[in-house]
Design goal:
mainly alpha, binds fe (ii) ion
């Protein structure tokens, strides 16, 4: 009889027979050993910003295409791009800190000699470096760390402590995929600031592994009828708050606009809505295939502006 993988007593029994899980983690560990970054050394932090260059594609900005946008100068539009990137990066840090705790909880009950747990620990180390990288980018841009806002910040406090398996990996997939869609375009656009391009490239490469890990965990879980409805609802709340927190209203004050006016104009902006739908399209499909989109959360996904 082949040797069975060692599992700590607290781990669910079905994990005793999960060779595919070990194979995936083995592949991800090998890929991490081959290509990982140290952002403190691998980003050129001393380079000055390029005059006249946007920090992200203007078409992805929350006010793009509105009358307010038409009245802004080119300098104000570029400044807004810097503050929206800073806001999204600070929400990235908020979620990465949540994720690090959820992954530690995932590892805590499992065998540390398994590839699966060793990859969870590797991912925590990646996220730790990413959060430092985002924080340094925000500081370098001279923008504040806007954060996710009072309500989302404190819901995050609860979420990172009590999330179930599907919520941990469903929420992770969601945030990682929307950031991936945003940053993949940024890293390939050579008209943008080199700083945001370099940060995006490092993040996209390392996140691709995290996304495979989360996707496999998500589909591995079997859910009953009632539990599925509950997971859908809870995940809908995560999607709603993570998406609506992306652009902090104070970014508008940085370009001389009233934050309340900016927020209202962005909310009604069809371009911004279609940007969010475009960024979330792939991950909503994955969540749907995992049975995590349904009547219990479609209204929340619609309110977040990520489905039509
Ligand atoms: Fe990350
Ligand atoms: Fe990640």
């Amino acid at each position: 009889m082949p040797p069975q993988p060692a599992v700590t007593p607290g781990a669910p029994d079905r994990e005793r027979t999960a060779p595919d899980r070990e194979r995936t983690a083995e592949r991800l560990l090998a890929s991490s050993a081959k290509l990982s970054f140290n952002p403190l050394k691998d980003v050129d932090w001393d380079a000055d910003p390029v005059p006249g260059a946007y920090y992200c594609p203007p078409r992805h900005l929350s006010l793009y295409g509105t009358d307010l946008w038409e009245r802004m100068t080119e300098g104000e539009r570029i400044e807004l791009s810097k503050h929206e990137v800073a806001s999204i990066a600070s929400v990235g840090i908020w979620f990465e800190e949540i994720l690090m705790q959820m992954l530690l909880r995932h590892a805590f009950d499992r065998d540390p000699t398994s590839n699966h747990v060793q990859y969870a620990l590797t991912e925590i180390a990646d996220e730790c470096r990413h959060s430092i990288m985002f924080a340094r980018m925000i500081e370098k841009m001279g923008a504040p760390a806007y954060g996710a806002g009072f309500v989302a910040h404190n819901l995050g406090r609860l979420f990172k402590a009590i999330s179930t398996h599907s919520q941990t990996f469903g929420g992770t997939m969601y945030v990682e995929e929307i950031l991936d869609a945003f940053q993949r375009e940024m890293m390939n656009d050579d008209t943008l600031q080199p700083l945001t391009r370099q940060v995006s490239r490092i993040h996209v490469i390392e996140e691709a592994r995290h996304i495979s890990y989360a996707r496999e965990e998500l589909v591995r879980k079997r859910l009953g009828f009632l539990q599925r409805r509950w997971e859908q609802l809870f995940l809908g709340v995560v999607v709603y708050f993570a998406t609506t927190a992306l652009i902090h209203p104070r970014v508008y004050a940085a370009v001389g606009l009233d934050p309340k006016v900016g927020k209202a104009v962005a909310r009604a902006n069809p371009h911004w809505r279609s940007t969010k739908i475009e960024m979330a399209q792939k991950v909503i499909g994955v969540l749907d295939r995992a049975g995590l989109v349904g009547a219990a959360n479609r209204w929340l996904l619609r309110a977040a502006g990520v489905i039509a």
